[in-house]
């Protein structure tokens, strides 16, 4: 997808004059944004990314700014938004809410290797160790409170077996998670490979925090593991799984409840993406022409997590 709101160099030069970020030397549309208009902006001093918010909940943007400010302030590899000379990060450009970010190096890892899994596991562990102290609040908009009512919208499109699987999984989740208080903190909320940038095996940055929220830390970790450590057939790759989790646990050990509920959380977030992808395909397709992500991939992943059963966690004291 391309840019939805085109910008001229003159518009961006005038916008940049409000920051202490140098003089515009080049402006480039970013072709592969999916929801917002994104531009690479280069000045005589630095490289940046300009985002115009085209959709979504604009009233949520101050939360994302606060979260990114907090994480960047703790030296995590995230693009902390630039603030203008008045101290404002969230601005308006071409009538749209706008944020300017530092440009992080690298590209997203299509087939992540063990070293990259170790790196992202450690980064999320460090992020969660500090994000437990973040004081902002935004409830998780994709947890069981969302899954349960939304699943009714897709049942009609599923085979009888899949209808039963979805309903049974929701019952299992309600049963195992009820009455348990898992460690909380700020979450990325969608830490797929394509929301990271790697320069070789070095993590350049974690981007796209627009699913950011507060909630169960292992919700975030299980999204990461399902996407980064599954093979094409949905089975977990043991080496990537061990590397990612050992690195995470070395930064933020899990408590007993988290260890016990870990296999259930992997299943719940597989269900979450099976459902969100089904909703995109059948119920609420995007206005613009995007190829929807395949729900069947996460249906398969859920089946694999069920087959795998009580997955052991690696010992954080043993380097993978
Ligand atoms: N801070 C950044 N540094 C480098 N590249 C970025 C940064 N932010 C976004 N990008 C690039 O722009 C693309 C689109 O950004 P993203 O925030 O994911 O938009 P969308 O929500 O529209 O998909 C990303 O895939 C990435 O290539
Ligand atoms: N990474 C997701 C896409 C974003 O999901 P959403 O539910 O927050 O819209 C995927 O691979 O499905």
Automatic annotation (TrEMBL):
Keywords, ordered alphabetically: Amino-acid biosynthesis, ATP-binding, Kinase, Nucleotide-binding, Threonine biosynthesis, Transferase
GO molecular function, one term: homoserine kinase activity
Gene3D superfamilies, alphabetized: 3.90.1200.10, Phosphorylase Kinase, domain 1
Protein name in the entry: Homoserine kinase
Record family assignment: Belongs to the pseudomonas-type ThrB family.
Domain Aminoglycoside phosphotransferase intervals: 28-250
SUPFAM superfamilies with a match to the protein in the record: Protein kinase-like (PK-like) (SSF56112)
Coiled-coil stretches: none
Gene that specifies this protein: thrB
Native organism: Cobetia marina (Deleya marina)
PANTHER family named in the record: AMINOGLYCOSIDE PHOSPHOTRANSFERASE DOMAIN-CONTAINING PROTEIN, AMINOGLYCOSIDE PHOSPHOTRANSFERASE DOMAIN-CONTAINING PROTEIN-RELATED
Top-level taxon: Bacteria
Enzyme Commission number(s) of this protein: 2.7.1.39
Keyword Nucleotide-binding: yes
Lineage: Bacteria, Pseudomonadati, Pseudomonadota, Gammaproteobacteria, Oceanospirillales
Pathway: Amino-acid biosynthesis; L-threonine biosynthesis; L-threonine from L-aspartate: step 4/5
Enzyme class: transferase
Catalytic activity: L-homoserine + ATP = O-phospho-L-homoserine + ADP + H(+)
């Amino acid at each position: 997808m391309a840019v939805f709101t085109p910008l001229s160099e003159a518009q961006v030069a005038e916008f940049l004059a409000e920051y202490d970020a140098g003089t515009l030397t080049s402006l480039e549309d970013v072709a592969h944004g999916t929801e917002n208009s994104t531009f690479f902006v280069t000045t005589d001093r630095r490289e940046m990314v300009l985002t115009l918010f085209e959709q979504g909940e604009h009233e949520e943007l101050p939360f994302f700014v606060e979260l990114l400010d907090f994480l960047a302030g703790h030296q995590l590899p995230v693009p902390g938004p630039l603030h203008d000379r008045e101290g404002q990060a969230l601005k308006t450009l071409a009538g749209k809410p706008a944020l300017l970010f530092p440009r992080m190096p690298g590209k997203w890892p299509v087939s992540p290797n063990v070293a990259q899994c170790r790196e992202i596991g450690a980064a999320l562990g460090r992020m969660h160790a500090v994000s437990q102290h973040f004081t902002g609040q935004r409830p998780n908009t994709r947890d069981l409170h969302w899954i349960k009512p939304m699943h009714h919208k897709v049942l009609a499109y599923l085979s009888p077996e899949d209808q039963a699987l979805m309903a049974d999984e929701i019952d299992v989740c309600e049963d195992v998670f009820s009455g348990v208080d898992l460690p909380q903190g700020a979450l990325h909320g969608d830490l797929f490979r394509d929301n990271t940038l790697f320069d070789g095996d070095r993590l350049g940055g974690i981007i796209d925090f627009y699913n950011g929220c507060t909630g169960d830390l292992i919700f975030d970790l299980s999204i990461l593991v399902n996407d980064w450590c599954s093979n094409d057939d949905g089975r977990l790759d043991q080496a990537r799984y061990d590397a990612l989790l050992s690195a995470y646990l070395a930064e933020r050990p899990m408590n007993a409840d988290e260890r016990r509920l870990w296999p259930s959380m992997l299943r719940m977030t597989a269900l979450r993406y099976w459902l969100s992808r089904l909703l995109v395909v059948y119920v609420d397709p995007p206005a613009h022409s995007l190829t929807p992500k395949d729900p069947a991939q996460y249906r398969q992943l859920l089946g694999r997590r069920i087959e795998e059963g009580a997955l052991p966690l690696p010992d954080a004291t043993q380097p993978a």
